[in-house]
Amino acid sequence: xxxxxxxxxxxxxxxxxxxxxxxxxxxxxxxxxxxxxxxxxxxxxxxxxxxxxxxxxxxxxxxxxxxxxxxxxxxxxxxxxxxxxxxxxxxxxxxxxxxxxxxxxxxxxxxxxxxxxxxxxxxxxxxxxxxxxxxxxxxxxxxxxxxxxxxxxxxxxxxxxxxxxxxxxxxxxxxxxxxxxxxxxxxxxxxxxxxxxxxxxxxxxxxxxxxxxxxxxxxxxxxxxxxxxxxxxxxxxxxxxxxxxxxxxxxxxxxxxxxxxxxxxxxxxxxxxxxxxxxxxxxxxxxxxxxxxxxxxxxxxxxxxxxxxxxxxxxxxxxxxxxxxxxxxxxxxxxxxxxxxxxxxxxxxxxxxxxxxxxxxxxxxxxxxxxxx
Length: 373
What we know:
Blueprint: H1 3-11, E1 33-36, E2 39-42, H2 47-83, E3 93-96, E4 113-118, E5 125-134, E6 137-149, E7 152-157, E8 164-169, E9 177-191, E10 196-208, E11 213-233, E12 236-254, E13 262-280, E14 288-302, E15 310-323, E16 329-336, E17 340-344, E18 350-354, E19 360-362, H3 364-368
Antiparallel strand pairs: 1-2, 3-4, 4-5, 5-6, 6-7, 6-8, 7-9, 8-9, 9-10, 10-11, 11-12, 12-13, 13-14, 14-15, 15-16, 16-17, 17-18, 18-19
Helix pairs in contact: 1-2
């Protein structure tokens, strides 16, 4: 297994998964009910609600794109490599994580190793990582790979009893932890002629040691279709990923990485939620990313009443531009529920108006403090 291919296997839980920041009501709130299919929606009646709903759509799109691209990389790159291991059979083979060479008499209990074995009866390939350090990343736990049907590849990351754990450090020689990820999930990948399909179920827990935050994401049969291409924006090459997502995700945000008290929970359902995400290609000197979102997403929060719960439709009128270093949105325009228009400014703020009302501007700080993030 090459270093790059191993990284793909390790990358999956490094994702900040799909979530939507929800919209908070102001004192001028007077919500009325409508429907989108069989979903209940809230009609936006305040500029504050419009701004926060637009921010929710952007955040949902960004996390969806990150999630989908990482999973797609895992499936397209790591899967064929794992399945093609020469000579892998029912006798386990243990590799040193530092030089990736086989170890004579190695076994899963050997520290800083990966042990791989293929079940003779089922054909399932298992990789057991034992505090395996590669550069600035350590992984511990089990990963399995199989085929549920011709062309359908299945990855299982850890289990409920023993999730796979990935720890990131400040550098290859550092012992300072910057992030910890644990995952217990199953990914089914099917490659098609025009697009690829991924179905994901399970949970991922992410702890950011730098920001002192912790989030857990539970996915219930989430479906993603992914197409990828390369295009030019100006003179710079960009990798473009188009994703369509359907399914349910629950995000639990904890007060801190050491406090187990739950501060906020969001249950999100995505219905034909489309995302186009463009990132600078390798070798590009571009400093911006671009995002477009459209479709429907709904939010239910715990505790209730702190923010708006309901369903929203969002459409990108002008691509959202994002500073790839800071993550701050610097330009773009969205329409929410066909009534609210939100324009993003260079400092991360949003100017919003509902049904032609007088526009109001909200700073980035005001947007991010309306609801728990």
